[in-house]
Amino acid sequence: MTMSKAAVQAQRIEPQDWNIWLKTGRPTPQIRTVQENESKKKVLFVTSELSDLIKTGGLGEVSAALPRALRLHHDVRVLLPGYRQVMDSGHPIRLVGSLAGHAALPRCRVGRIDLDDGLIVYVLVSPELYEREGTPYGDERNRDWPDNHIRFARLGLAAADFAAANAGVSWRPELIHAHDWPAGLAPAYLRWRGQGTPCVFTIHNLAYQGLWRPECRAELAIPEEALRMERMEFYGQLSFLKAGIAYADRVTTVSATYAREITTPDFGCGLEGFLREKAERGFLSGIPNGIDESWEPETDPHLLCNFSAGDCAGKAVHAEYVRRRFALETCAGPLFVVVSRLVRQKGLDLTQALADTLVEQGGQLAVMGRGEPELEDSMRRLAERFPGRVGVDIGFDETTARRMFAGADFLLMPSRYEPCGLSQMYAQRFGSLPIARRTGGLADTIEDGVTGFLFEEASLESYREAVLRAFRVFATPHLLHAMRCRAMTAPCFWRQTIDPYLQLYRQLLEGRHGEA
C-alpha cells in the first residue's frame, strides 16, 4: 500500500514541530484564533463521515449539519479518521497532538482542520489505517477492509483519549456524541477506563452493526465483562453497535417512528429486546433529522436559476436540464427521479417492477446513485429497456442531484425501512413531492396527500396505488401547485429541530443521567 505525500510528511514530524501545516492545497493561511466562550459546553462529535470531506450517505450529511446547528449554543467539534480523501481534500491540516497505542491499536497523530465557516475537525492521522483507495469502509469494489475492527476501535479509543485530556490537545470535551457502529466503542472505552464523561450514542441505521469474531477481543483490549449478553455480545459475536447502545448514557435514533419500530421484531435486527428495555427505562428516544440551510431554492448556487414557492417557473428549467442530462425525450408528462444509494433497503426492485406503469401512464424516470453491483447492473438494463423514457447514472454528483430535486415532479422513495431519510426533505424543499412507504422518518416528515404520498406495504400493489394517485394530482394543476407550496414551506431545517438535543445535552451535563 503506497503512502500519500501527506502520510510521509506526517511520519517525519517530531513532537516539537506539531504546530505546523501538514497538508495544504493552497497558500498557507493565517492561523485563526478561536475565542472560547466559557459559557458554552464542549461537545465532541465522533463519526466516520463528514460530508465536507467524505461521505457515503446520510450519516455524513448529519455529521456536518448538526454540529453547525448546535454551535450557537455549544462549542461543538468533530473527530474523524484521516482517510485519503480527507488528507487530500485541499484543506490545510495542522498537527496538534498525538495518541498513544493500546493493544493492537497503533499510535497516531492528531491533525486539525479549520473549515471555512469555523467548524473545527480533528483528524486521526494514521496512514497505515486510513490512507487507502476506496470508501471509508472498504476497497474500490465495496469489499470491507479486514481490519475495520482496528480502524474504528482506534476512532473510539481516540474519543476516550480526548475526554481524558490524553490527546495532547488543550481542548477537552465535556460530552461525547458518537454516531453509528464505527463510533460504537467510544462510550465503551470511556466506561472501561472508568471515565465519567457523559456520552450520547445515535443510531442512524440499525442494520449495520459492526460485527466481529470474539477472537478480536485481545487486539482491542476488550475486558471480559463486555462479553456478557447485556453488553456487546451478539449471538456469539462482538457488536460495535451494541457496545454503543450498552455503554452510552443515552441512545437516540433519527426519528420518533423509527425509535418505536426498532423495539419490534420486524425492524429490531435481533436487538429489539435490548432496545425495548432501554426505551422502557427512558434511555432511548427518537429525534428527527433536519437539513442544512443550503437547501433554499431561492439562493442555492448549484441551481441553474432560483425559484420559490410563490414562483415555481424555475422548476421547468431544471426539468429540461434533467431530461437532457439523462437522454430523456421531450415530454409533457410527470418526471420521476430516484437519488439514492442502490441497496435493497431502498426498495429499488419495486421501482424497477413499477417502470412499466410509469411509462404506460406517460411518465419518465431519472435515476442517480451507486451501491450494490447487482442493483447497478439491473438499473442499467432498465434504461436499455426504456430508451428515452428511463435514464440512469451510476455515480453521484452533488450539483446534478440538487438539480434533479429541483426539476422533478415526484421523488420515488419506496424504502423497506428508513430510519429518517433526508432525500424526501430535500425534494419537498425544492417542490418535488415524495412518494414513499409509511415507515420511520418518512412517516414523520411526509403528510399524505398534503406534502407527498405515503403507502403502507412494501408491495408492488401498494406502491402502484400511491404512484397512480400522484398521476391524478399531476393532471390537476391547481392541486399540484397547492401541494408543492405546502411541501416547500414545511419545517425541516436543523434550527427548527435541535431543541431535543439541547435538552438532552443539558440533562447529561447537569449529571441527571442515571445508570446506563
From TrEMBL:
<dbReference type="Pfam" id="PF08323">
    <property type="entry name" value="Glyco_transf_5"/>
</dbReference>
<keyword id="KW-0808">Transferase</keyword>
<protein>
    <recommendedName>
        <fullName>Glycogen synthase</fullName>
        <ecNumber>2.4.1.21</ecNumber>
    </recommendedName>
</protein>
<dbReference type="InterPro" id="IPR011835">
    <property type="entry name" value="GS/SS"/>
</dbReference>
<dbReference type="GO" id="GO:0009011">
    <property type="term" value="F:alpha-1,4-glucan glucosyltransferase (ADP-glucose donor) activity"/>
</dbReference>
<feature type="domain" description="Glycosyl transferase family 1">
    <location>
        <begin position="334"/>
        <end position="470"/>
    </location>
</feature>
<comment type="pathway">
    <text>Glycan biosynthesis; glycogen biosynthesis.</text>
</comment>
<dbReference type="Pfam" id="PF00534">
    <property type="entry name" value="Glycos_transf_1"/>
</dbReference>
<comment type="function">
    <text>Synthesizes alpha-1,4-glucan chains using ADP-glucose.</text>
</comment>
<feature type="binding site">
    <location>
        <position position="55"/>
    </location>
    <ligand>
        <name>ADP-alpha-D-glucose</name>
    </ligand>
</feature>
<keyword id="KW-0328">Glycosyltransferase</keyword>
<feature type="domain" description="Starch synthase catalytic">
    <location>
        <begin position="42"/>
        <end position="277"/>
    </location>
</feature>
<dbReference type="InterPro" id="IPR013534">
    <property type="entry name" value="Starch_synth_cat_dom"/>
</dbReference>
<comment type="similarity">
    <text>Belongs to the glycosyltransferase 1 family. Bacterial/plant glycogen synthase subfamily.</text>
</comment>
<dbReference type="InterPro" id="IPR001296">
    <property type="entry name" value="Glyco_trans_1"/>
</dbReference>
<keyword id="KW-0320">Glycogen biosynthesis</keyword>
